[in-house]
Amino acid sequence: MREIYLDHASTTYLDPRVAGAMRPYFENEYGNPSSLHRKGRRAKEAVENARQTIAKILNCLPEEIIFTGSGSEAINLALLGTARAYKEHGKHIIASKIEHHAVLNALKALKKEGFEVTYLDVDKNGLINPEDVEKAISQDTILISIMYANNEIGTIEPVAETGAIIKKYRDSEKTPFFFIDACQAAGALELNVQKLGVDLLAVNGSKIYGPKGVGCLYVRKGIRPMPLVYGGGQENNLRSGTENVPGIVGLAKALEIAEREREAESTRLAELRDYFIGRILKKIPKTVLNGHPAKRLPNNVNITFLDIEGESALLYLDEKGIYISTGSACTSNSLEPSHVITALGRPYEYAHGSLRFTLGRKTTKEDLDYVLKHLPKVVEKLRRISAVRLENRK
Amino acid sequence: MLNKNKKPAKNADVVNKNTGEKWYYSDIVKDHFFKPRNLMLKEPKKTQYDAVGIVGSPACGDQMKMWLKIDKKTERVKKLKWRTFGCASAIASTSAFSEMVTENNGMTIEEALKIKPQRIMERLGGLPNRKIHCSVLADKAFRKAVSDYFRKTGQYRRVLTDGSKVIDSKLNITERDIEEAVLEGATNLNAVQKKLKVGIGSPEVIAEVEQLIRFYAEKYYG
């Protein structure tokens, strides 16, 4: 069966060039970077080279990069680690309502530790207003978390603008710190931390054609989060545990390729994206685009199909070899519909009928045409099954 | 026969990206999901069916509408048609339920009311744990439709009240019925009486009915 994978925001395949770079570190160069002998030193060198590669892309110092076991871990280190270390300076945190669960659930945990969180609304396209950040900042604010680009609807947040505002409010201890989750943005947007004006930034391997189980956190020099993992003191005492050398090498290689191909690939993807969105909205009645029409990731298409339920659509498309995801409650852990779609001010039923298609490096126009051939039939069939006839309240 | 096969399926189709938990859908579930039985495809004429029931709401992620054709003498369910805004489990379990009720000349209303969700699950070869709640929608819609049948045939005593407080005991109209009438847009006594005839034969309950209408109108339309 023909398989069309349009779920690259969930995860990507491993680029063969990345796999090639990683391979020696599984079987031959398996040394522990902490060992003093040559085998250890060679592994150490590989880790440090990877650190330099990433530092160059982020325009920061190599020692400002901390390798972690995932994007979620990098996010948790940024939030839990910084909040715990700086709680004497204040106990207030600001975050957008549409952050990834790694952020939202870490903040929930911090709330139990006595921190207070202000959640910022977004507009109907998913954009935060930097002025809202300014209004929410108080003497007590130590941390502000805004995602660079949203994983569900692809909306790109005004991060640099927000960073410039936050700078004005820095006290002598340099709080509040500005954290951005760039896991979805890597490969699509510029990651220059100086230009963005951020203090902490998280990236991972599994969304950029790199390996799973590895991520990294940029921590601006002078900021000392408390570690989440204690042990041998690796990663500048911030993340103990023997380094995942092949993973780290792979992450750097993946980011390097993503950065080199970023502009050309983004242009190609944005064209495909707009073609796909245009065709769906035109061909299928009662469809609504979720997220910003222009300020959106080049590979993200998120559309609500009124009167149908996302999980059913996902499984009907699965039967045709088309792999996508949905914001419907029935596929979520909590049985709650997507917090992102509902934050746009849309009724719950819009979230239940939302489908996300995320394109990737191998996606072609032919792939999208194949989907465009089957999707209208699936939607039509499910609408015939559906007990609901909603009005489009857009 | 498909329905004798009670073995749990081996193929995992959906893996939750947040928890990694596997959702197993049996081949029988898939068969019903992709080829739902007894679907109401075209909007029927009013006289074609004897009763109709709607439960759930799209905001909650599921809604079910069910139509019944009942043999008045034997009370056998001759036809059961449905439509749903729901997930794979809701579609498959309603499809299976519709077969169970109508096959072999049709169950009587009383027999059909005794079908436990467990029996639908058995027929489907099981459902993932977190999806069991999706399978009760069919039963709920059926009970609503049966109550509608009892009302339309004047058998008010037999209307199913399902634990909700009975307001009009002559017509067996419950607090829940009034809440639903308000939800459907009837926000004053006249409109509610058009739907339910509540209090028409028992004027003494009207004050309470009006109070309930105000309460629910405030709650939902505030």
From TrEMBL, chain A:
InterPro entries, A to Z: Aminotrans_V_dom (IPR000192), Cysteine_dSase (IPR016454), EF_Hand_1_Ca_BS (IPR018247), PyrdxlP-dep_Trfase (IPR015424), PyrdxlP-dep_Trfase_major (IPR015421), PyrdxlP-dep_Trfase_small (IPR015422)
Catalytic activity: (sulfur carrier)-H + L-cysteine = (sulfur carrier)-SH + L-alanine
TM segment ranges: none
Domain of life assignment: Bacteria
Pfam families noted in UniProt: Aminotran_5
SUPFAM superfamilies: PLP-dependent transferases (SSF53383)
Domain Aminotransferase class V: 4-371
Keyword Iron appears in the UniProt entry: yes
GO molecular function terms noted in the UniProt entry: cysteine desulfurase activity; iron-sulfur cluster binding; metal ion binding
Cofactor: pyridoxal 5'-phosphate
Keywords in alphabetical order: Iron, Iron-sulfur, Metal-binding, Pyridoxal phosphate, Transferase
Keyword NADP: no
Family: Belongs to the class-V pyridoxal-phosphate-dependent aminotransferase family. NifS/IscS subfamily.
Protein name: Cysteine desulfurase NifS
Protein's organism: Candidatus Azambacteria bacterium RIFCSPLOWO2_01_FULL_46_26
Taxonomic lineage of the native organism: Bacteria, Candidatus Azamiibacteriota
